[in-house]
Amino acid sequence: MAKKAKKIVRREYTKADVKQLRAHSKARTPVVKIAKLTKRSEGSLRQKAQKLGISLGHRR
């Protein structure tokens, strides 16, 4: 029996989400951790951060 593909659920970024993302950016929280907290993919977070003009991760 074939496995069903996981349905992609798209959620808009709210003002609170953006505020939280900016706070994590300032605190240099790893992207993996932010992804688990916000229940969003790493790629989604990185794209949103790029649009906002902020950086994510530890920045070595």
Summary of the model, kept short:
With 60 residues, the protein is an all-alpha fold. 53% of the residues lie in helices and 0% in strands.
How would you describe this structure to a colleague?
- The chain is mostly helical and 60 residues long.
- It has a domain of 38 residues.
- The model has no long low-confidence stretch (mean pLDDT 90).
- The chain is built from three helices and no strands.
Q: Spans of 5+ residues with little confidence (pLDDT < 50)?
A: none
Structural class per helix/strand content?
A: mainly alpha
What share of residues are in beta strands? under 5%
Tally of contiguous helical segments? 3
User: What's the β-strand tally?
Assistant: 0
What is the CA-atom radius of gyration, in angstroms? 13 Å
Mean pLDDT: 90
Distance between termini?
Answer: 46 Å
Helix percentage = 40-55%
Q: H/E order of the elements?
A: HHH
- Tell me the major beta sheet: none
Shape descriptor: elongated
Which terms would index this structure?
60 residues, mainly alpha, 3 helices, 0% strand, elongated
Q: What's the topology here?
A:
Elements: H1 15-27, H2 31-38, H3 42-52
